[in-house]
Write a structure and sequence with these properties.
- The protein is an all-alpha fold.
- It is 69% helix and 0% strand.
- It contains eight helices and no strands.
- Residues 78-97 and 160-174 have low confidence and may be disordered.
- InterPro entries: RNA_pol_sigma-70-like (IPR039425), RNA_pol_sigma-70_dom (IPR014284), RNA_pol_sigma70_r2 (IPR007627), RNA_pol_sigma70_r4_t2 (IPR013249), RNA_pol_sigma_r2 (IPR013325), RNA_pol_sigma_r3/r4-like (IPR013324), WH-like_DNA-bd_sf (IPR036388).
- Belongs to the sigma-70 factor family. ECF subfamily.
- Residues 11-76 form the RNA polymerase sigma-70 region domain.
Length: 174
Amino acid sequence: MEPAIRAEMTELLPRILRFARSLTRDAAAAEDLVQTAYIKAVERIDQYERGTRLDSWMFRIVQTSWIDEKRREQRRGVVISFEDAREITMPSHGHGGTDRMFLQKALGSLPEEQRAALTLVLFEGYTYREAGGILDIPHGTVMSRVARARTYLARLHDEDGTENDDEDIQRGSS
């Protein structure tokens, strides 16, 4: 592998890890996913087209590795511990001024498809078209997922802690 590509892959690591965390919602699982993706990238470096964006190629490998893992889990069945199940639940309505913690919980409550699109567009700075290429979906679908995610997050943020009907905030159907 060329030293320049190796250096660029190393530079990408924090961004790739952040994307993996947005998919997995678990630091250890994200690290495993990134390791798997980097192994695949090294093994398939001959498939990388010089002069194209290495970051897009790497994000796509992470995304497909995640999809592959989810499919394997579906085939063999997944057992979730009680502690993991509690972490996956909706965030509390009152975020108590801790915006970073609120955002992490709120992002974790988004459907996976919306979380991936939002992460690529808002946090990684990809255009809708680029994110669509990474996720292998039309850019209009990316726009829709990001819009639904933003609406949902805005509603959660605006909550004042009062009781609401479950129909007021429905993940992914706004």
